[in-house]
Model the fold of this input.
Amino acid sequence: MKLDNIISSGTKATRDGFGAGLLELGHTNPKVVGLTADLMESLQMQHFQKEFPDRFFQVGIAEANMMGIAAGLATAGKIPFTGTFANFSTGRVYDQIRQSIAYSDKNVKICASHAGLTLGEDGATHQILEDIGMMRMLPGMTVINPCDFAQTKAATIAIAEHHGPVYLRFGRPAWPMFTDNLKFVIGKALHLASGKDVTIFATGHLVWTSIEAAKALAAEGISCEVINIHTIKPLDEEAILDSVSKTRAVVVAEEHQRNGGLGDAIANLLVHKMPVPMEYVGVKDSFGESGKPSELLDKYGLGKNDVIWAVKDVIDRKK
Amino acid sequence: MADISKLTELAQQVRRDIVRMVYNVQSGHPGGSLGCTEFFVALYGNVLKHSPKPFKMEGKNQDLFFLSNGHISPVWYSVLARTGYFPVTELNTFRKLNTRLQGHPATHEGLPGIRIASGSLGQGMSVAIGAALAKRLDGDKRTVFCLTGDGELQEGQCWEAIMFAAHNKVDNLVVTVDWNGQQIDGSNEHVLSLGNLPAKWKAFGWDVLVLNEGNNLEAVIAMLRKARRRCGKGKPVVILMKTEMGYGVDFMQGTHKWHGKSPNQEQFDSAMKQLPQTTLGDY
Done:
């Protein structure tokens, strides 16, 4: 695909994509059940709840119990989708996920909204930036961070067909939509634009940011390959190595700590298979703070210009 | 359904298994295991409607059991083996490399009878509630049983689960608390008092049964059957079951000190004298 052909058809929140996907699953898969810990509407789960009240469980503000109940439902053959903020879906319940879900190989879908800085004004207590790292360390856990409404909806539907625990991470703000006609397959990188100077691997909200950066760089004569890694685990190693063997320079962009996220996953692959210069666009070992999503992304080095600078830096290092 | 003399013999053999397994690898948790022997023998030998073979994870149209205080794995493994879930000889692999009988119960190695990993405390009741909800959705009339420790109730997640089950009228669930009053660092009273346990459960909206003779096999059977009869009436049921930690081996009895300790040769010999081999035979 050409960069110029990637255009936004409007904006909607990724969490709306989750809500739409879950509703569709309600109609197509009777094993799917929903649970929330007092954040039903924040996760847009009310559509499912209204249509399928018997298959929806309001657990109250008790996330640990929710994860255990989900494990029990899965044991007895259901496909539970838990819904709460990313912070409460991971850090608060890590041990419950580790023992009752991951180690016990339960078919639970941990669906997590309001991830990252773009949660905005609520501040650092809620802006988890470590969740991808925690979840990708768990053996057997699939980790997916979709980039827009359509991809989140598609991922929500796809994970019901995948047997095993999944962490599905999405966000709060309305965000440009651009993958409406693009196919989503778990574990398969989405090739968005071809280029020869550098590969930008991006996930979540930072995919659109990376597209905008690549367009600006094209105007300066720098050719960027843009690849969306929506599935952080298992990583599409083949697609990554294919691209890097051509461009020999990498930028990874994600709304997460530099420690433990997609950047580290790719660095781990490349250091073994194809060491090349690499730059991270991510939060540098810091908590966030209150503010507007766009202000926070700029302040913490996750804006369009940060991607542009990272690309220029890595190309310099390649020479 | 085995008669009571056979179950009594089974209980003695299970106690022997527990001490032998722990002695064999010089690790494991004999105290709580010995204290809950009557419970497991009553449950698997008399109360549960279950099919050991072939073991099916989903357990549709069967009663299900979840062990929350996973450290008492020796008693569970012995009873599972001796009720047909896996070969009795496999008890010899307990806690050894490549075993399916992990230190704490796990599904990972595929041991029949285990439906969830446990060991990190406080999680089992939530899981049991989830399985009970699934049975309700499926119109499956069987019962879900769960055993939890008393010290374990210090975990906050337990009270999340207790509140949820009452609010949602999860009345196909029977939780038993092993109320032996002991935990690793001493008595519950010393470590963190549980207060008036029956009143607490009642205040949370459960149907509360108290069993003072948790090491009396017939009394345990009768109480588990009574609890099942109380299901389906809009409330989850709890049995607060008084047991004696280490029951059946005099020097292990009534103290927290044998929570997670293995006997030496002399102690082992003494225990074996107190628990002679039965017609069921050692593993």
